[in-house]
Amino acid sequence: MATGAGWAPLRSVERHGAPRAGGGTRSKSVAPGPRRPSPSPARSRPAPDNGGSADSCRVRVAVRLRPKNSEELAHGADFDNCVELQPESKRLKLKKNNWNCESYRFDEVFSENASQKRVYEVVAKPVVESVLEGYNGTVMAYGQTGTGKTYTVGRFGKDDPSERGIMVRALEHILSSMSFETDCIAISYLQLYLESVQDLLAPEKTNIPIVEDAKTGEVSLPGAAIVEIKDLEHAFQLLQIGEANRHAANTKMNTESSRSHAILIIHLQRSSRIKGGNCRSLSNDTLDIFPDNLPLVLKSKLLIVDLAGSERIDKSGSEGHMIEEAKFINLSLSSLGKCINALAENSPHIPIRDSKLTRILCDSFGGTARTSLVVTIGPSSRHYSETSSTIMFGQRAMKVVNTIKLKEEVDYEILYKKMEREVDQLTSEMERQQKVIKSEKMQLDKKLKESEKAFHDLRLTSNMQIENLEKEKCHLESAVKNLMQTLEEEKGQRNLLSEQIIELEKLLNENKQQQLENISKTKILADTSKEHEKEMGELLKLLEEERSCSSSMKNRMSVLQQQLCDAQSSAQESMAREFEKKLTKVTEEFTSQLQSLRKNISELISEKEVIYEELKSTQEKAQQEMRHRQGLEDQILRMKQSASDNCAEVSKASCGMVRSGSGLGNAAFVSKSGKLREAVSGQRGTISKIFEEVGLPNVLSLLKSEDLDVQIHAVKVVANLAAEDINQERIVEEGGLDALLSLLETSENTTIHRVTAGAVANLAMNGSNQGVIMNKGGARLLANVASKTDDPQTLRMVAGAIANLCGNEKLHLMLKQDGGIKALLGMFRSGHIDVIAQIARGIANFAKCESRVISQGHRKGRSLLIEDGVLTWMVANSTRFSASTRRHIELAFCHLAQNEDNTCDIIASGGIKELLRISRESPREDTRNLAKKALDSNPAFLREVQ
Which residues lie within the region annotated Disordered (predicted)? Predict the structure, then answer.
């Protein structure tokens, strides 16, 4: 390991100034000589280095001067200094001779007395802090062999901590800043030897492949050992193992010359929980599926690169196998220099694939990593050309601008476990509620049976009471008859009394006559005798007594007659009243009993209705719980699918990062297509069951519910039903389309818009429904929704619906007038690949149908797509997207080229080149043939090609 002499620090500088913008310029000295033009300022694009807040960041370059070694001190004047440092102005002068020198400016200039601590804090510490925040970073040492690169980067300093290099200090800094409860750190230590990537921690692993992710462009080394570390002592052991396995040799330039490029990769994974609104790197549909607080993981990596030194064979004295090593070292360094030159000059082609070193470092120069470079030089004029080449490499590297990106990922494992616990709780709660509902239902059934039994018993009792009352009525009727007979008998007795009274009156009249006769006799015999007078007086007295007695008898007789009449009338009335009272009482008792029976019956009926209502509400509640559970299961399926896709991408980017004993890169989700198909079929079966039980009219009526959740679930059910061909016409006939379009027009909820647009898209797959949708203003409503939202999933559904309508040539003019084409093209602003895929599909459908109509002679003239600017968009974006999207755009372009009225527009927009490209490079043979046919059949195209 190259160390260099005289590196003892004189002082430690804790505070450093920020590099000024515009670094990388150089000025010429006052001494005469040929002028060398300075680089153009337009080529230098430095970005602010303020802790990672900027999106772009220039490569920072520092230069470090090695002290004179023993050989240079021994020869004295033969090894004069060719370098003069100006640390206060961050410049150095390179002297070719006594009258010719050049001045260069760097981000930092370290003298031969600069401490290892100061070099770390200026060069590597900002990069390490950026890596801790979630960005990728690179620290690299470049220079001639023997100038102190390994001393600067890889010095261990176990005996003297002040001698520690950047590798050890960076690990110490990271370990002190991380929490091992939630964070993970692991390292890989590799070397590039003879253009072969070898693992220094597992020497048996040689010729490790370099894999580049097609989507993210991230480079990975599958098969390289990744070892998780917990403390600095463990890191020391691993670094010592790696250094022992690294190739080194003794040359004239250096006693321990590194014969390979060493690359230490530090992998960081940090947990971070922030609000969903602050997740800049997450997509909107992910934020729609997950809750506000998302468990996030910051993944970053730090590359510390100790390059092998460039050397000349005549100076290093390499022989035999060492010459081959020097060739490969110089070849890889030369390729790195070419890449730096191309990036500095904004060249359209960067020769990254010329060397494995440039492929590994492609993210460090012109990529997404924050990069710091320290170039090491020697003071001796003997190595003037090597020193000048190193300085120019650093100057060109300062012009390279990287675009740093924060890598935030949702911790799907924690989120999945949380959702799984919630689903288990909901499932257990639902099962408990189902048991409670079942027990309540059993109790209600039991009560219902008891009520029915009581009602039956009450009915029997009431029938018996009615029979008893009828018997009593018969008895009363017989009693009334007996009373009438008694009255008749009493009437007869009264008649007898009347006859007796008449006889008594006759006797009284006879007595009166006798009295008159006696009076006459007394008058005749008045003169006969006084005795007879006395007897006459007595007789008169008796007569008076008899008269009084007769009058009293008459009075008594009248009283008796009155009493008899009164008695007869009162007896009849009292008996009638008593009979009526008894009859009324019996009737009232019968009526009250009958009313009480009717009241009991009505109460039982009302109780039965209440029980039925409770059963109905319980069934509805159970159905709502089933729908809610089904929604949660659908959400879990989507999360699993999203997690499996994300895990697939992570596995491609981080293949080989897992080793036995390592805690990194555990796959959180592995989803199989069979389970997904089972889940989808189960969901459709549940929806079909709900549809059969509830009925389409009842489902459609829920679309007008005031409860937003009920509306959303109802629209989802309708959307799933509309996915089946057999249900589409029936939904339209039952008024489902009108309800969906009304929701699009009146609702302001994004979820309603997304699901409703999906349902309309499913209905638009039926040709007979497309005209109905257009006539009811469906395209205009979809265009309005597209103009009001930025949600990618909603835009995808809207674009899919419009794309389905584009497949009907009879609706093209109406679709254009309602703004459908402009809305389709306007949704490109979202930048979402799924939305763009639907846009391309709609344009292809429109162009294909329009081409068919024009070829059949039903319409002529310029394409409606060209009038809305679609052609310009296709020419500008035909090669930017995925293969399927490009295929749709190419197909649309070929169909537009079939119409001769579009010729001028295609030529003016530069479409001839695109047609040529499609005819040669399109992966589909039918598309290539269609493009060739369009070129060969149009004379104007042939003239342009020639």
Answer: 1-58
Residue 419: other Cβ atoms inside 10 A = 18
Is 144 assigned a ligand-binding role in the annotation? yes
Exposure letters 82-97 (e unless 16+ CB within 10 A, then b)? bbebeeeebbbebbee
Rounded distance between C-alpha atoms, residue 177 and residue 330, angstroms: 38
Average pLDDT over residues 461-486: 87
Write the DSSP string, 609-671: HHHHHHHHHHHHHHHHHHHHHHHHHHHHHHHHHHHHHHHHHHHHHTTT---TT--S-------
Under 8 Å CB-to-CB from 467, ≥6 apart: which residues?
A: none
pLDDT for 722 equals 82
**Is 150 known to sit in a ligand binding site?**
yes
Lowest mean pLDDT among 473-482, 568-577, 865-874: 568-577
Q: Is 327 marked as a binding-site residue?
A: no
Q: What pLDDT digit, counting tens, does each position of 232-278 carry?
A: 899 999 999 998 988 876 565 666 677 789 999 999 988 875 444 44
Q: Output phi, psi for 45, to 5 deg.
A: -125, 70
Residue 673 pLDDT exceeds 50: no
More confident residue, 141 or 631: 141
The candidate with the shortest Cα–Cα distance to 874, out of 824, 924, 803, is 824
- The H or E element containing residue 707 is none
CA distances from 811 to 592, 722, 816, 848 (A): 76, 21, 9, 14
DSSP state letters, 64-132:
EEPPP-HHHHHHGGGG-B-EEEEGGGTEEEEESSSS-EEEEE-SEEE-TT--HHHHIIIIIHHHHHHHH
DSSP category for residue 144: B
Report pLDDT for 825.
83
Q: How many CB atoms lie within 10 A of CB 20?
A: 10
Largest CA distance in the chain: 226
C-alpha distance from residue 531 to each of 311, 514, 614, 723, 943 (Å): 208, 21, 118, 149, 193
pLDDT grade for 486, boundaries at 50, 70 and 90: confident
pLDDT, residue 858, reads 79
Which tokens hold the place of 604? 């039982």
831 is in an annotated binding site: no
User: Mean pLDDT over residues 93-100, rounded?
Assistant: 81
Supply the pTM of this predicted model.
0.43
Mean of per-residue pLDDT scores for the chain? 76
Q: What is the pLDDT of residues 496-544, one digit of tens each?
A: 877 877 877 777 777 767 766 666 655 555 555 566 556 556 666 766 7
The tokens describing 93, both together, are 């002068």
Q: What are phi and psi of 138, to 5 degrees?
A: -140, 135
Strands 137-143 and 370-377, how do they pair?
parallel
Query: What is the residue whose two structure tokens read 């040359």?
Result: 251
* Structure-block tokens of residue 48: 């602010």
The residue count of the chain comes to 946
572 is in an annotated binding site: no
Query: 446-456: b or e for each residue (b if 16 or more CB lie within 10 Å)?
Result: eebeebeeebe
CA of residue 203 relative to chain centroid, distance = 46
Residue 37, SS3 per DSSP: coil
Question: Is residue 147 a known part of a binding site?
Answer: yes
Give me 351's structure tokens: 């020769």
Look at residues 631, 743, 739 and name the one whose alpha carbon lies nearest to residue 690. 631
- Distance separating alpha carbons of residues 607 and 497, to the nearest angstrom: 68
